[in-house]
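Ticket #4471: structure output looks truncated?

Reporter: J.K.
Steps to reproduce: submitted the chain below (228 residues) through the standard prediction queue, then opened the result file.
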Amino acid sequence: MAEWRLFSRWTPQALKTRLERLSGVDRNFDAAEEEMSGEQGWHHYHSEALIALEPDDDAGFARARVALASYQFSDPDIVVAHFDPATPLLMRKLLLEIKVVGLHYLCPAQVYRVRDEPGVYGFRYDTLEGHIERGVEWFLLTKNEQGEIRFRIEARWKRGQLPNWWSRLGFILLSGYYQRRWHRCAHRRMSLFAHFGSTAPPPADWTGLTHQGRDVTFTYHTKRKFFA
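Returned output as attached by the reporter:
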């Protein structure tokens, strides 16, 4: 069951201790990714956006790779990832601190797959015991021959074990809103990282495409319901 707090956070030492405890924690689901379909009761959707255009070099793609591997694309007002950066990305343990209207939920996950190919980079994390959701989530960067850099987030999930009745009610009422808000922020932040290596506002003389990272498309492969 997810650990939670109201209007307070965990100290660095407390987070380190909890990360160390994850060594024996397993995934909180048994299904393989290809079995996580709507027919089997899983939610499945993805969002995608063009975040940069660089036909001449790979500097933007390289900057975006760093931001992706370090989870910097996540809006810290909604989700903060706590992890040991010295550990390899593959099999890295994460503590995702999810923030909703003053509540903080500490949710464990682990990177189980990594893709690192020409023009493709990303990873998939799986939820562990104690997460408020069950399932997998992919984060992928791609670059085509025209220099278009795209960022894609794809999730397959079911509701996990929430700590109390009002958390379950809040999940039903608010999860859809927060998921879409987080996705939009992630694409915007990744666009800024690809261009500038930070989330600072673009310089006044920047002439790039102003819509980059903002035209986010959502595709729901299953019905949009959050009760299961």
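Triage note (M.O.): checked the attachment and the full token line is present. The longest helix spans residues 165-196.
Status: closed, working as intended.
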